[in-house]
Design goal:
With 165 residues, the protein is of the alpha+beta class. The protein has one domain: 3-Layer(aba) Sandwich (Aminopeptidase), CATH 3.40.630. It contains 4 helices and 7 strands; from the N terminus they run βααβββαβαββ. A 7-stranded mixed β-sheet has the order 1-2-3-4-5-7-6. The longest helix has 17 residues. The protein is globular.
C-alpha cells in the first residue's frame, strides 16, 4: 500500500512545486503552457485552497500529488459547475516513479473523498495533445464528456469524468 496522506502545513510548498514542475516538464516540452509547468509556490498554494490535497512520499521525498475540489459555483469549465461533480487538479507524479501505481492510487483517494462527500462524479481535464494521459484516464474509467478552452492556454482541453458508485 502506498503511503498516501493529506498535505500538512509542515510540508514544503517549494518541494511540492518542484515535484509539479518535474511532472509537467514533458507537457511543457510539447509546447503546452499548463499552469503547472512553471507556477510559483504561491500559485501552488492558491490552487490547493478550497480542496483536499493528497501527497505520496517515497524515501522522505514528495513523489506524487493531486487536489480534489467540490463543485465550483463558477468556473471556465462549465462541467465543473454541474451539481454532484467534484474535480481534480494539479495531478503530478515524479517522472522517476511513474508507472508504479502512484497516480492510480492518488486518483482512488480522490474518488473516495468525492464519494464520502456525496459527489456522483469525479471530473478532470487535460490538453487534447496529451493523448498518453487521455488514454491512461480512459483505462481508469474516465470518459470524454466535453471540451474547455482555458483563458491564456494555447491548447484546448478534453474534459473527462468518471461516475462514482
Amino acid at each position: 500500500m502506498l503511503p498516501i496522506r493529506t498535505l500538512q502545513p509542515s510540508d514544503s510548498l517549494l518541494e511540492l512545486t518542484d515535484l509539479i514542475h518535474r511532472a509537467y516538464a514533458r507537457l511543457g516540452a510539447m509546447g503546452l503552457n499548463y499552469t503547472a509547468v512553471d507556477q510559483s509556490p504561491e500559485v501552488t498554494a492558491k490552487r490547493i485552497e478550497g480542496g483536499q490535497c493528497y501527497v505520496v512520499e517515497i524515501d522522505s521525498k514528495l513523489a506524487g500529488t493531486i487536489v480534489v475540489k467540490p463543485t465550483y459555483r463558477e468556473n471556465e469549465c462549465q462541467y465543473f459547475t454541474r451539481p454532484g461533480v467534484a474535480a481534480v487538479h494539479q495531478f503530478a507524479v515524479d517522472p522517476r516513479v511513474q508507472g508504479k501505481g502512484i497516480g492510480r492510487a492518488l486518483l482512488q483517494a480522490c474518488e473516495g473523498w468525492a464519494q464520502e462527500h456525496g459527489f456522483r462524479e469525479l471530473a478532470m481535464d487535460t490538453a487534447e495533445q496529451a493523448e498518453h494521459l487521455i488514454k491512461l484516464y480512459a483505462r481508469l474509467g474516465y470518459n470524454h464528456v466535453g471540451f474547455v478552452q482555458w483563458s491564456g492556454k494555447v491548447y484546448r482541453s478534453v474534459v473527462l469524468s468518471k461516475p462514482l458508485r
